[in-house]
Design a protein that fits this description.
2 copies of one chain form a homodimer. With about 140 residues, chain A is mainly beta. Chain A contains 3 helices and 12 strands, in the order αββββββββββββαα. In chain A, strands 1, 3, 4, 7, 8, 9, 10 and 11 form an 8-stranded antiparallel sheet that branches. Chain A has a two-stranded antiparallel sheet with strand order 2-5. The longest helix of chain A is centred in the first third of the chain and has 6 residues. The two termini of chain A are about 25 Å apart. At the A-B interface, strand 7 of A face strand 7 of B.
């Protein structure tokens, strides 16, 4: 992390996200574990440009808070939404979705997995390049 | 909000916090309502220098994420802790505490009230000036 990133970002990058569930390079910093007191997992995720996670669901729901860069969010069957600093996404339980950076910008969000006693994440299939680039084919960012 | 604040901060200031539960000027921006899907209230709070909330508890617990400035956090019977950007505070259910800005700096945090189905907040008495200034009397910030 360079000095400018260090000053701008809230958290250090953390651990490299698993290539089993992420395409490209992303970093996950655990902030609050999913215990039976808070019933909430909280983490910070930094996606390098082009990086994204696989399609997945959260049995207890999730809230994303975009804090830096330009990101992508997509629910199955809907178009990709652009995310910018300060955007908040409420993801209902069991909704199939993915998130990540846009092709040309790093992206950082805080993830809040609510009702973690119901399970935090169910991973599904990879987001294909065709799915990922569907926005840039449709319009200029 | 001036241009520099606007660029730095994640969220607009929101609504003025109730003088019933806050000393000084603070602003609350609701991000996620306490509904029965997420069971979580999320909001952003900006405290002007010297501002703080009253002593209170959260029946379902709370997590604070400091995002800007220098803040104070105190649990009953313990010394005041300083909070800086990137600090995360886990507040157990029913622990009596307060938070706010330090005397000379604005402070901003995201507040995540977990298990909101158990109740989000129980307000208690005002934080006195003696309590608030106990840190600056003990040491230089």
């Amino acid at each position: 992390m360079n000095a400018s990133e260090n000053k701008r970002l809230l958290f250090p990058k953390g651990e490299k996200a698993s290539p089993e569930y992420f395409t490209g390079t992303a970093w996950v910093k655990n902030l609050v574990p999913a215990d039976d007191t808070f019933n909430t997992w909280i983490g910070n995720v930094v996606f390098e440009p082009g990086a994204r996670n696989y399609w997945h669901t959260h049995p207890g729901g999730q809230v994303l808070i975009a804090t830096d860069g330009v990101g992508y969010y997509q629910e199955k069957g809907k178009p990709i939404q652009l995310l910018h600093k300060g955007d908040v996404v409420q993801i209902l339980p069991d909704v199939v979705h993915w998130h990540g950076a846009s092709p040309d910008s790093q992206f950082t969000h805080i993830a809040i997995n609510t009702n973690s006693q119901k399970g935090t994440v169910v991973w599904l299939e990879k987001v294909t390049d065709e799915e990922y680039y569907s926005l840039t084919k449709a319009a200029t960012i």
